[in-house]
Design a protein that fits this description.
Largest sheet: 4 strands, mixed
Number of domains: 3
Number of helices: 11
Oligomer: single chain
Order of helices and strands: HHHHHHEEEEEEEEHEEHHHH
Mean pLDDT: 92
Number of strands: 10
Length: 391
């Protein structure tokens, strides 16, 4: 299989890299961390002007109409730049999900405002800080009157949940025999009565939020698609985000290795560059080899996200394998990069420590390695049983 980028993809990647280099230098990121600032309106408008917020939104819905590959390139460059804007939450998770079901004028207006850079989005898919189970939803939606709904429940660590203008809330109207049954998606204003948002600062400088919904009253214009039919779209969005998370980590891994290369060439000890010492050369080469392993698995996740075959155990296994491998490489490269830099690796004013934070953040997002190891075991058992039946 050919994993090389096409000429068009290289052009897209280079333009993204140039934008981040010019508009989000490390000094700007450091200033954001020190002052605990949230979303940067100027940067957000610039990203909207480049079409990034609608990169994965179909052209007929006002977006660029690109695919998962282009989204992977965007998140890879975002990771390399230490970007803390809610690109993944808005451009990867929520905006494509809204575009799939423009079932009301309100939803269409919210998407239009987002693509223009006047709003941001969030997808509140997680209700537990332990484990990875997007379909484990206890938030309820009770019908009120002819066309209303009352939402009650809680969501945890919602990416961009504290400042998003609109939040997609998965909730169950009724119970079903299968986990996908009974899930509906609602577009809730960030300032809705009964919605409490508790901002949570993340290790990489971004922000999440814990949400509590107490009798949040909305009408049917806030329902995304058909009632009880939101499960497949939710699952596809979460796994699309998982693939993007792997790509973001890959970008941070690559940039960490570049910083190590420069440091080993410039820093001298005993009258010669650190890179002249064989032990450090071996460690650096191990990091480069690990990066290629992460790149391959990130591409596997991207391919699976394009296929959207989420009822296939082989696909779920590949997603979890990719997340686990990329997470292992992220921790290994991040910790080794700190050790290669010595004391400088711990300095706030030096970027390598911030890349380690970004890598730890990516590793914890969309399920930890332990979560996905459990999923791997479960899916392997089902695959073996399936193959035995076929034989």
């Amino acid at each position: 299989m050919n994993f090389s980028l096409t000429a068009d993809h290289e052009m897209i990647r280079d333009s993204m890299r140039d934008y981040f280099t010019d508009n989000y230098p490390f000094a700007r990121h450091l200033d954001r961390i020190r002052h605990r600032r949230g979303m940067d309106a100027e940067l957000w408008a610039g990203m909207a002007g480049l079409g990034w917020l609608g990169l994965m939104v179909p052209a007929e819905a006002g977006g660029v109409g690109a695919g998962q590959e282009e989204g992977m390139l965007l998140m890879q460059e975002a990771g390399a730049a230490l970007n803390a804007e809610p690109l993944l939450a808005t451009a990867v998770l929520a905006a494509p999900l809204l575009a799939q079901a423009l079932s009301s004028a309100l939803i269409a207006e919210a998407l239009e405002a987002t693509l223009a850079g006047r709003a941001s989005l969030a997808l509140a898919w997680s209700e537990s800080s332990h484990g990875f189970d997007p379909l484990k939803i206890q938030t309820t939606a009770v019908r009120t009157g002819a066309s209303g709904f009352r939402l009650n429940g809680a969501k945890v660590l919602v990416d961009n949940g504290g400042s998003a203008d609109w939040i997609i809330i998965p909730a169950r109207i009724g119970a079903g025999e299968e986990p996908l049954d009974g899930i509906s998606l609602f577009l809730v204003p960030g300032g809705a009565k009964g919605l409490t948002r508790k901002p949570v600062p993340m290790i990489d400088g971004s922000w999440a939020a814990d949400l509590v919904l107490e009798d949040v009253q909305i009408d049917s214009s806030h329902l995304i698609g058909d009632a009880d039919q939101g499960g497949p779209a939710l699952l596809a969005a979460v796994y699309r985000g998982l693939a993007a998370n792997c790509a973001e980590a890959l970008g941070a891994i690559g940039r960490s290795i570049e910083l190590c290369q420069v440091y080993l060439q410039e820093r001298k000890q005993f009258g010669k560059p650190l890179g002249a010492f064989q032990a450090l050369q071996h460690r650096y080469v191990d990091m480069v080899v690990a990066e290629e392993r992460a790149r391959s698995m990130s591409l596997v996740a991207t391919i699976r996200a394009n296929e959207q075959a989420l009822d296939d155990d082989d696909a779920i296994r590949d997603f979890s394998l990719a997340k686990q491998v990329v997470g292992q490489v992220a921790r290994m490269v991040g910790s080794d990069a700190i050790q290669l830099h010595g004391g400088m690796g711990m300095a706030l004013e030096y970027p390598i420590g911030h890349y380690y934070r970004k890598l730890l953040h990516c590793d914890a997002g969309f399920g930890t390695p332990d979560d996905h190891l459990s999923i791997l075991v479960e899916t392997d058992v089902r695959i073996q049983q399936r193959d035995e039946i076929r034989v």
